[in-house]
Amino acid sequence: MFLPLFDSNPRNVVAPVTLTAIVGCMVVFAFQLLLAQQGTLDVFVLEYAFTPAAVGQRPPTEILGTALTSVFLHASLLHLAANLWFLFIFGPPVEHRLGSLKTLIIFLLGALAAAFTQYIVSPDSTVPMIGASGAVAAILGTYLMLFPFAMVVTLVPWIIPLLPIPAFVFLILWFAFQFMMGVTQMMETDITGGVAWWAHIGGFVAGVFLVILLPGDRRRR
Length: 221
What we know:
Blueprint: E1 3-7, H1 16-38, H2 41-48, H3 60-69, H4 77-98, H5 100-121, H6 133-146, E2 151-156, E3 160-166, H7 167-186, H8 197-213
Antiparallel strand pairs: 1-2, 2-3
């Protein structure tokens, strides 16, 4: 896969929602490390992660709550770093264009869309779903609609080390990869874990439509 390094949008912008989400995920991960040392991490994850099979077994408010709290839980340092890096690259331009309130709405509704898309695909799964990737995917979908022709400087080691790619090409390729992996996962007979690809897809699609549906001027620079 390819790694975005920076885009052509100005970086000297104020993005409190993006910054808060990044810091929040880091703080929670530090707390997870502490719980792991105490041997109580599994209980914590089961309580605050989104588990598809728990839908209908727990009160609706708790299910909605876990769809949001699961965003701040991560399985490893690499999992955390990957999600926060994508949020760091694509979040500030979106927040600068739309404002903090709309960005927060997209982030949270994207998280819900991601969780319940995964539930629709695998409603009997007992594997806890954690990570900010679904909410971040909503930000990516929004970015696609707002900045399709921005240039994303990307690390592509097997072609050219640093390759500027139009955002619409980068994000469509990203989405196509998620869809391909999601379909492949559905064809497996025994899914016991791994990446929640359909959560990424659901979050991304939600971001595309939310930026269209939310009122206001999206042309502000």
